[in-house]
Write a structure and sequence with these properties.
Number of strands: 4
Distance between the termini: 27 Å
Helix content: 10-25%
Structural class: alpha+beta
Strand content: 25-35%
């Protein structure tokens, strides 16, 4: 798997807000290694490619089932969470005429099952 590295000298600034909502500890599922996980609300203030994935991985808390930024844990993660655990619950955009427009979506059933 390829990873893109950002040059500190030439890369663009990125800012992400993170709020931990719940903590989980997984023990012995199908012979897997134990692990701790954080369910978090994340708000990217800038819009860089893979920003959320890269920032959480840099904190040692990569997204579950992330084959790029958590490739060592991917095989174990994908046993209980078959897709990248990333969900956009709300997005707000500015309409071309000026007002803001928001859309919300609940957590999907497959991610609820993973919890």
């Amino acid at each position: 798997t390829e990873r893109t590295l950002v040059s500190l000298a030439f890369g663009q600034e990125a800012c992400t807000l993170l709020l931990a909502k719940a903590c989980y500890h997984l023990t012995g599922l199908n012979g897997m290694q134990d692990g701790s996980f954080t369910f978090a609300e994340v708000r990217p203030l800038t819009g860089r490619t893979h920003q959320i994935r890269a920032h959480l991985a840099s904190l040692g808390r990569p997204l579950v089932s992330d084959a790029v930024y958590a490739n060592q844990a991917f095989a174990a993660d994908s046993q209980w969470c078959p897709r990248l655990f990333l969900h956009c619950s709300r997005i707000t955009l500015r309409d071309m005429d000026g007002p803001f427009c928001s859309a919300e979506a609940p957590l999907t059933p497959d991610l609820i099952r993973a919890l």
